[in-house]
Design the sequence.
């Protein structure tokens, strides 16, 4: 039969390994608690458009500028045609608004309203991680 012997050096090594493992577990637990304590706020998110496209900055800026100019204009024309003229081309032709800026501003307001509603809906349904 083998007789177990007391080895203080071996016990010291075992104890130091257990202490290291314990410290690692404590650090991991603190990290988890930090993440749980400070959830991300919806409005503190950073958005970078270049992460979502494969376009260069100059091309993307050109596309965004043309979208900023054309999208509200087209939306304004559609809104006036569908809501005010009630999808009647004769009534739409009788409306004496020939200014680009009028159509653009109406479309801008419609898109702004839709965007604000989408942001509020997204903020309400945002799940904290």
Sequence:
């Amino acid at each position: 039969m083998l007789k177990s012997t007391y080895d203080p050096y071996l016990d010291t090594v075992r104890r130091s390994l257990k202490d290291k493992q314990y410290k690692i577990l404590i650090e991991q637990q603190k990290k988890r608690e930090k993440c749980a304590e400070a959830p991300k706020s919806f409005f503190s998110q950073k958005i970078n458009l270049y992460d979502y496209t494969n376009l260069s900055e100059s091309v993307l800026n050109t596309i965004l500028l043309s979208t900023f100019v054309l999208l509200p204009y087209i939306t304004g024309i559609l809104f006036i045609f569908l809501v005010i003229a009630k999808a009647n081309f004769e009534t739409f032709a009788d409306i004496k608004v020939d200014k680009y800026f009028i159509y653009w501003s109406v479309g801008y307001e419609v898109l702004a309203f839709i965007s604000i509603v989408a942001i509020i809906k997204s903020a309400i349904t945002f799940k904290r991680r």
User: Anything to note?
Assistant: The CA atoms of residues 54 and 60 lie 9 Å apart.
